[in-house]
Design brief:
With about 230 residues, the protein is of the alpha/beta class. Helices cover about 50% and strands about 15% of the residues. The mean pLDDT is about 95. Bound molecules: zinc ion. Zinc ion (ZN) binds near residues 46, 48, 102, 106 and 107.
Length: about 230
């Protein structure tokens, strides 16, 4: 008997079509990429299937280095994320690192709703730390907007963590251009928002974080309607 077709067969068919289309649109695309990659961007985003980095920003393979995990967390002892950042900054010399959260993030919502997921709860403890840090502010945010507020707070905290890594600190120290950004993606409209926390040297980290946090708090203050 021939093997039963399964859902992955389609993927190979899709892939062959994609490779042929790409080669037709950009003759020599794959052989050129084989030589080297020289992306300018490192995207640190959520693993959520609805937030695919390349597609959202219209970039082809070779243009963006990507690290994704549940709730786009960057912790100081995560060798996986740190290795990606180190390779991106030191070897690829990316000029921009963006931490990208997204609205209605399942990881963030689990934290707010105290849902037990299992092993992932240990990972999400980092997001719980962010919630605890901003608990008083979050309690004052309208309930329907609270998870999006925590998504944004989490972006600012994780972007600040990126700034504090030895990799980024060392790059700035030697005068290398690296700008760290905090962005949020709207699942409801497909649009990226810049949280206006762009940091390009060690002295700016505190002020940039403070300004972005102030803007966030204003946007979510109960007296102001949602934009
Ligand atoms: Zn998410």
């Amino acid at each position: 008997n021939p093997p039963m077709p399964d859902a992955t067969d389609d993927l190979f068919a899709n892939n062959r079509r994609w490779a042929a289309d790409t080669e037709q649109r950009f003759p020599g695309f794959f052989t050129k990429l084989m030589e080297q990659q020289s992306p300018q961007y490192l995207w640190i985003g959520c693993a959520d299937s609805r937030v695919p980095a390349n597609q959202l920003i219209g970039l082809l393979p070779g243009d963006v280095f990507v690290h994704r995990n549940v709730a786009n967390v960057v912790t100081h002892s995560d060798l996986n994320a740190l290795s990606v950042i180190q390779f991106a900054v030191d070897a690829l010399q990316v000029q921009h690192i963006m931490v990208v959260g997204h609205s209605r993030c399942g990881g963030v919502r689990a934290v707010l709703e105290n849902t037990r997921l299992g092993l992932a709860d240990n990972w999400l403890q980092h997001v719980r730390d962010v919630r605890n840090l901003h608990q008083v502010f979050l309690d004052g945010v309208e309930e329907s907007r609270r998870s999006d507020a925590l998504v944004e707070l989490n972006v600012l905290e994780q972007a600040r963590n990126v700034c504090h890594t030895t990799v980024v600190q060392d790059a700035w120290q030697r005068g290398q251009r690296v700008v760290v950004h905090g962005w949020v993606y709207g699942l409801h409209n497909g649009l990226l928002e810049d949280m206006k926390m762009s940091v390009s040297n060690a002295d700016q980290v505190g002020a940039a974080y403070g300004t972005a946090l102030g803007g966030l708090k204003q946007r979510y203050s109960p007296s102001r309607p949602a934009l």
